[in-house]
Each structure stands twice: as structure tokens, then as C-alpha cells.
Amino acid sequence: MIDLPTKQALMNTSLAHLPAYKQEQLQKIASIIVEAVQPEMIILFGSHATGRWVEHKYVEDGIVYEYISDYDILVITKSGENRKDYEIQDVIENSCRYQTPVTTIVHDIDFVNKMLREGQYFFTDIEQEGIMLYNSGRTSLAERKPLSPAEAKVIAQDYYDQWYLSGQRFLKGARFYWQDGDLKEGVFNLHQAAERTYNAVVLVFTGYKPKTHNLDKLKRYTKRFSEELAGVFPENTAEEERLFDLLKRAYIDARYKKDYVITAEQLSLLIERIQKLQDIAGPLCIEMIASIDSI
């Protein structure tokens, strides 16, 4: 059993609010990460840290839907770590396969401390609300700089204007190419519409932009902000999995691979889904921006 020191000033280290089986899972996850990565710190954040996690199943039109909140984990690596953040992320997520999905964000200590000093509210919230699962004791987190509500609101509005509105333009482009019969160009534009819409939600809620074009990961990042948003692509049947896979692969395959094939009907279905995604994401972001004054 790996010794997991957890002393970190001002940060919570208790998992007592979680059921015993979740505490055990998180301890195992921390052990796996320590062995694979040798990080500086491992911090649980999101719904499992704040006690707002959800697990439930429901049936609609004869189809079973399941919603399970992920374990959201920030892994802080050493200064000068040679491996890329996404490489470490893949190692961790491929090693930690439980009924509860594990979503990780990986950054080195220099980057995290820079964000804390600048008042980047994704990281300041984690330092304030997160639970330290592991601390090597070799370094420490910088003192966070709080943003005023007015500053945070301006930043969130800028993110919405840049990313959500751009996503709407790409959806408009996808419709044009669908009507023009250029299906590959249409689905690539649709991928961009989805990517920018997901990014808009993450940025408005956290001020953080994941370094990925992977829609599966972006979908998981937005899951903790809206169950309805996560349900746009349920992936609970083989047909649903194929549909989302077509969209995920469009970023590369639709542009560069001759064997990538999508029908007009499939593109039409995906256009409807991305319209639904934006119909949910837009009001969600606007509501969040409006609420910042009261935070």
C-alpha cells in the first residue's frame, strides 16, 4: 500500500461526506496515479468534492438512461515534467476504470500557481473547495488572488461572445454545406460547432479551456454543469454510439480520409443534435453569467 501524505495548509483532506465505497475508490485512484505519474498533488474537485454528486437511472420510451457524476481530479505534476499533459491524462484515465468515470485535468505546479496568482477562477475555486487526496510535500500552492464579481462577469461574457457565438456560426455553415451536398465539409463544421459550444460552457462556468479537440472529453467536462446537456448524445444504443462517433471523427477523418463516409440523413440528425446542444448551452451560460453578481 502506497503511503499517501495529505497535509496541505488551508485545504480540506476529508472524504467523510462520501459513502465508504467511494472513499475506497478514490484512495485506489490516488494510489494508481501516484504510482504511474509521481505527481506533486492530487486534488478532487467538482460534485464529489462539494457533495452534489448524482447517480441515477431512468427509462424513457423503453430506453434506459444512466447519469453518473464523474470523479473530477486535478493532477499537479512537477516543474519541468517531460511528458505532455494529455499523455499523462490518458495514462491515468486508462488505468482508472470504475463504474464511476474518472475525468482528469493535468498541469504542472508552475502553471497552476501562475493561474492562482492571476485569480483564474477555475483554479481558485479548486483551491477553495477541493479535497487534497495526495500531497508529496515537495512544493506548495500559491495564495489565490480573488476576482471581484464584476471582473468575473466581464470575463465570462467575453468567453460567451467568443465561443458560443462562434459555435452558432459553425452550425450555420454546417447547414449550408448540408444543403449544398458537401457532407464532409458539413460534418467538419458541425464538429467545430460542437467543440466551441462545449468550450463555451466550460469557460463560462470555470474560466478554463481544456487543451483538446476530443468531443468525448469535452462532453465529460460539461457533464457536471448540466445533466440535460450530457443527454444530447446519450450513447446508450449502438445507433447512438455510431452517430456520436461520426461526429467525433470528423475533426480529422472528414478532412483527410477518403474512407470517411456520412450520409445526408446522418448529417441532418447531427445538425438537429447540435442545435439542441446549443439550445441548452446558450440559456445555461446566460443564466450563469447573470448569477455572478450574487456569488
From TrEMBL:
CDD domains named among the record's database cross-references: NT_KNTase_like (cd05403)
Domain called HEPN: residue spans: 164-284
Coiled-coil portions: none
Annotated protein name in UniProt: HEPN domain-containing protein
Species this chain originates from: Filimonas lacunae
